[in-house]
Amino acid sequence: MKKFALVLMALVLVSSFAFAGGKKEAAPADNRVTVRLITDATGIDDKSFNAAAWRGILSYYGDTWENQKGRGSLYDVTTCQTQDMYIPTLKQASDEGYDVIMVTGFTFADALGEVAPLYPDQKYMIVDVDWVGQPNVVEYVYAEEQGSYLVGLAAAYMAQEDGIENPKFGFIGGVPGATITKFEMGYIQGIKAVYPDAQIVDFYANDWGKPELAKAQAKNWYDGGVYAIFSAAGGTGNGTIAQAKEYRMAGKNVWAIGVDSDQYAEGVYADGKSAVLTSMVKRVETSAVLTLTAVEKDTFTAGVTKLDMKADGVDYAASNDELSASVKAKIEAAKADVMSGKITVIGTYKEALAAGAVPAGLGAIDD
């Protein structure tokens, strides 16, 4: 825990000091755990991945999005507008004496791998990475393919209930890599469990924060007969939701599928109506809470932890009432089969392709 001499405490209380992302105040009298979250340019307002990490931090301290009482003293966040800011931002946060520093996403892996050895007494957490391998870094990975399988089922079963013949489905990814590949592989396997010959199209924006790219692609696909689009692209994916909202308002039967957080609210276009059929819920907040709790109890242990469906790491959102009871029942049955091992969802493109579970020619990569 952060400990200050009484004299230093008094000085900080009356003066405080500035730091990247906000104002750092003195450690509270009860000496509680302190944390700094560092995100990419999309920030905690991405309504997706980073927002989930921030919710976990707020939850740990008993705060809410609307009432962030501990911000600036117990916890805070820095948004890096460019990747060349990752290393200096990590160093600055490490110099400021936080109990733990959290970073979100595999784009931080190289920077953290360089900085962590320089601060052996500093604790770090990273999500979506299992290769940093430093003795002061806890790494969390998720079984994204399992949760994505469920939303693929949701889209396919809804198309089936709507009586759509030969439905098409789309996937929009952010920056290609092994993590996003798991989303796409699971989604496609879920669809093909219902429609073995379904047409699948995919597109990678190579960016987490350009919703205009996803919106343009979604319009093109919806106009071409695509029924549902799943976006695993951070803030970029919000463009898919925006286009689906426009089209559903115009009476077109198309759907967007959210990611990481339940994005139902982002798709609302009328009372009780949302263009987001479901979302692949990736409980990044669980990683934040587990890490903070471990630091508090002095049980922090470096290494890799995988959170799968059985560990409540991934799921699907059932917020949309248009996701029918019969579809939900089928998804719940499949969910039980995944957790029991009766259904195995493949997470790599190489293995899924070899098993004939996905089509060739996708933009997914395993590295």
Give the SSE layout:
Layout: H1 6-15, E1 17-19, E2 22-24, E3 35-39, H2 49-60, E4 75-79, H3 86-95, E5 100-104, H4 109-115, E6 123-127, E7 137-142, H5 144-161, E8 168-173, H6 178-194, E9 199-204, H7 211-223, E10 226-232, H8 238-249, E11 255-260, E12 268-270, E13 273-274, E14 276-282, H9 284-296, E15 303-307, E16 314-316, H10 325-340, H11 349-354
Parallel strand pairs: 3-4, 3-5, 5-6, 6-7, 7-15, 8-9, 8-10, 10-11, 11-14
Antiparallel strand pairs: 1-2, 12-13, 14-16
Describe this protein's structure:
Helices cover 37% and strands 21% of the residues. The chain is α/β, with parallel strands linked by helices. A six-stranded parallel sheet has the order 4-3-5-6-7-15, with helices on both faces. Strand 3, helix 2 (49-60) and strand 4 form a beta-alpha-beta unit. The longest helix has 18 residues, at 144-161.
Shape: globular
The secondary structure category is alpha/beta
Helix content: 25-40%
Mean pLDDT value = 91
**How many beta strands in the DSSP annotation?**
16
Order of helices and strands: HEEEHEHEHEEHEHEHEHEEEEHEEHH
Rg over CA atoms: 21 Å
The share of residues in extended strands comes to 15-25%
Unreliable stretches (pLDDT < 50, length at least 5) are: 1-29
Oligomer: single chain
From the N-terminal CA to the C-terminal CA, the straight-line distance is: 37 Å
Count helical runs.
11
Q: How would a textbook summarize the main sheet?
A: 6 strands, parallel
* Spatial strand sequence of the major β-sheet: 4-3-5-6-7-15
Tag the structure with descriptive keywords.
single chain; 367 residues; alpha/beta; six-stranded parallel β-sheet; 21% strand; disordered N terminus
